Amino acid sequence: MQHHSGDYEGYFAWSLKTDGTKNSEGAASDGELYFITALIFASNLWGNDGEINYLKEAQYILSCATSKDEKHGYVTNLIDDSHRLITFVPDGYGNQFTDPSYNIPAFYEVWAKWANDGKSSYWQDCASKARQFLHSTVHSTTGLTPDYANYDGSPHGGGTIGEAFRFDSWRVPMNIALDFSWANADSSWQTQYGERIQNFLYSKGIDDYVDQYNIDGSTVTEILGAGGKTKLRHSLGLVSTAAAVSLCVTHEKAKEFVDQFWNAKNQPYDDGYFDAYFDGILQLFAFMHLSGNYKVI
């Protein structure tokens, strides 16, 4: 997956065939966030004297990801330096905006503490900027976020995908819960946010809210399809992240969201659609969050 030479050096191809052939050379910026953080945790847990120097691998990605601009043509840095925010894709088009679900300030806090790459204050600033960005991109009434956003937080239009709350945005409640749990640096706003989005979803029916809305809470005019199916669903992925944000909140509704998640099953929907990957991984993350097992190592 990882490029070891060329303009994309250090980055990971975001999509591959099962035999390892790349479907696309480019990176999806959130992938690097998880790789770097996981490697730092592996370093903390197992050390770096064995077959793999985990910290060195993390530092290699960080070094590559912060040294692209003006040197590698179309490929750019992972972080837009003028805003200190993660790019949607680190290239000449995707670096012009971001994805709210890619903004995970808790990860930058981990990098600031343990990456040992000489950029601790930079990563702390990125964490602060990510929190400020989330404040600006979350809808003031519904708590919903667009799938894509400009660096000022406003929705970034892009056809069917972009301005509305759809699949990418399901991850935002879970990511904010993560920052609440790990860093606890913005807890007052995060509690307000968690209750706001749960209140909105609850108003649509705890068993009935669907997986795509305009950010003001109105019904979308165009449904984004998945797996060859085009339908609004009460999707397990959103059920999972809506439950995970219960970590932040104090209201009684939280228990209903957790109960609904606990009783949900990852199985085909009534139209035959089955998403073992995205629904499944969000279900796994939510179990880790809510059981207290997704933590800083």
From TrEMBL:
GO terms for biological process: carbohydrate metabolic process. It comes from the Eukaryota. SUPFAM superfamilies: Six-hairpin glycosidases. Keywords: Glycosidase, Hydrolase. Gene3D superfamilies: 1.50.10.10. Belongs to the glycosyl hydrolase 8 (cellulase D) family. This is Glycosyl hydrolases family 8. It comes from Coptotermes formosanus (Formosan subterranean termite).
